[in-house]
């Protein structure tokens, strides 16, 4: 199926983008069970909801259907669609009366996290959330090590500003280890980022 952005440009999936990329085949192991970061976060959010801990959901991406094929009466196949608007971040919700908003990204790099994984409109959205007193962050997974970190949006914005001023186009893994909060993988919940938020509130 073909997707297009609101400006008519054809959408080409970026495998580093957690929201729009097609799931990659992974070897199932005890450490990651073959799940993507999105899978793990969705499972975590379902646990939070079932335990009355927090209400956080993945945001739907508005799509305008353009063309549909009907190979038979009982089935319809969407062959062309457009994103109605640029997406903001992946997840939002509420926890202890605070608005929660965050993006989820994976990288296969062992040494750094590329800032190209973010778009200008996402950065502006995060700035707006922070101005309104919301809790905004990025959950980053280094898939090579199966390590997950919560990086507060304020740090991401600092790196973005440096990049705009001619600085590096990535955040080193060492910088993330220093600035971000490491989240050990668990069973229930899989990625317990609420524990980190408790320390931020």
Task: Describe the protein's architecture and organization.
- The protein has 201 residues and is of the alpha+beta class.
- The protein has one domain (2-200): Trna Endonuclease, Chain: A, domain 1, CATH 3.40.1350.10.
- The chain is 26% helix and 32% strand.
- The protein contains five helices and eleven strands; from the N terminus they run βαββββββαββαβαβα.
- The radius of gyration is 18 Å and the shape is globular.
Quick recap:
The chain has five helices and eleven strands, in the order βαββββββαββαβαβα. By secondary structure, the chain is an alpha+beta fold. It has a single domain (2-200), classed as Trna Endonuclease, Chain: A, domain 1, CATH 3.40.1350.
Q: What would CATH call the class?
A: Alpha Beta
Strand content range: 25-35%
- H/E element sequence: EHEEEEEEHEEHEHEH
Query: In percent, how helical is the residue content?
Result: 25-40%
